[in-house]
Amino acid sequence: MSHPRKGCCNNNFAAAHNNNPYHNKDNNYAAAPGKGSCITLNQADKNFHNVACLAQHTHFVVHKKRRLKKPLPKKRFLQKKNHSLSTPNKSRGAQDMGYFAKINALTLRNFKKMSLLQKQTPALQDERLMAYALRLAAKHLGATAPNPVVGCVIALDGEIISTGVTAKGGRPHAEKIAIDKITDKKILKNATLYVTLEPCSHFGQTAPCVDEIIKNSFKKVVIAAQDSDSRVNGEGIKKLREASIDVVLGVLEKEAREINRGFFCTKEKGRPFVTLKLATSLDGKIATQNFDSKWITSKKARDFAHHLRAINDAILVGANTVRRDDPSLDCRIPGLEDFSPKRIVLTQKNDLNLSAKIFQNQEKSETIILSGEKIDLLEALKNLAQRGINSLLVEGGQKTATEFLKENLVDELVWIQNKKIIGSDGISAIGDLGFTSIDQALTGFAQVDVRNLEEDIITTYRKL
Ligand SMILES: NC(=O)c1ccc[n+]([C@@H]2O[C@H](COP(=O)([O-])OP(=O)(O)OC[C@H]3O[C@@H](n4cnc5c(N)ncnc54)[C@H](OP(=O)(O)O)[C@@H]3O)[C@@H](O)[C@H]2O)c1
């Protein structure tokens, strides 16, 4: 249906619900007996008013399996034996694919570099310890929104004496955790603090981390990336320098921005970082002509997709996917079941049945219904960012994927391609874009990663 303007209106919203047995008089999805409730966000309300409150849900911690062939001996991290530190080695668990692999590779690369050069220059030592801090941060990726995930290492004469990672839910901050672990604070005046993001300088729900660092008179602070939050944005660095602390900025900056790409995207563009995931046959179909899409890809590829769910703050699908597939949209990697992202559904008709699986387990992860006629996706994303969602995984189907591409709102494209061939009567992953010449084809993505998983090839593209 063509509409003269984008966005939805309250009248349509209300009318669409008159026949919905699960709808209460306020036009909200009401809790059906034995079912969870959900939040309905009407785009007419610019603040995405929360009309049906839910129990808060906490996000998940992503544990990762090391990709290193042999575990690195602990003494590479800790030269003194009696330090009791929480190292990333302790938290093995689920699958290690995608981003964690990059961080692990990064760490390995830095260790290799170190062993080649027997003498550790200060710059290499800074890189080595920052790589470790990044690896710590990766542990809680997907668990700290709306706050960034930060890793911190405190070292004395090149030896790690304490570590911290932003706690689940975003607080306490990594620096505070690492500092609090040290009982004899006097030693800190000779210590160096490595942190993957500029320490905060403002009073939020906690006191500024820079004050804590200054109070303990650290000798040196090494920072990977400056914080783009307007409340910090260089202010933390300035305060540290004013307190005569030696500050080194930009060590492994690219990697630090990568791990917090959702946070940086929200701060710099006002909307979450969007990953579009497509699982297709070899000939690019997401389903057969009668909408059967189970299981196009292999078990390993589906685990990979669940891993993507785990590291994103929210997952979004179009209403037809809910109607046809009845997906749970949760993370079912063993050990991570309780840490699924928020679930978001786009709908015009707003007639979803509350017996659908997305309305179950609301106490673990809430469901947000974005309803309205031809919802303006950029506006919707901005509102989701205001609700603390920094990273969004779009899982289709065809109409939804096509709209995100048309609106140029895809930052990363993850294409999982199986060897099955479905044929031209199947449903294409991407719908009509209306191009008549090759010159018009979308070319704005660069291939950044390709991996083979048994029957599937997973290719990741990034917006140029
Ligand atoms: N293999 C895969 O990776 C994969 C992933 C997901 C889905 N699928 C398959 O994809 C098929 C469904 O795809 P589909 O293209 O039919 O539908 P879809 O994209 O899942 O859903 C389309 C619906 O979403 C709503 N919608 C989308 N954009 C909107 C906007 N801007 N404003 C308001 N509402 C909006 C509309 O809901 P209303 O209908 O309420 O108006 C629209 O009809 C299923 O067969 C499923 O199995 C495959």
Structure, explained:
- With 464 residues, the chain is α/β, with parallel strands linked by helices.
- The chain is built from 13 helices and 16 strands.
- It has helices at 10-15, 74-77, 99-116, 122-138, 174-180, 209-215, 235-242, 253-259, 261-269, 299-311, 319-325, 377-386, 398-406; strands at 39-42, 151-156, 159-165, 192-197, 220-225, 246-249, 273-280, 285-287, 314-318, 342-347, 367-371, 391-394, 412-417, 427-428, 445-453, 456-463.
- It has a nine-stranded mixed beta sheet with strand order 1-11-10-9-12-7-13-16-15. A five-stranded mixed beta sheet has the order 3-2-4-5-6, sandwiched between helices.
- Strand 2 (151-156) and strand 3 (159-165) form a beta hairpin.
- It is elongated.
- NADP nicotinamide-adenine-dinucleotide phosphate (NAP) is lined by residues 278-279, 286-287, 291, 293, 296, 317-321, 324-325, 346-349, 372, 374-375, 377, 395-400, 403, 427.
- NADP nicotinamide-adenine-dinucleotide phosphate (NAP) binds next to strand 7, strand 8, strand 9, helix 11 and strand 10.
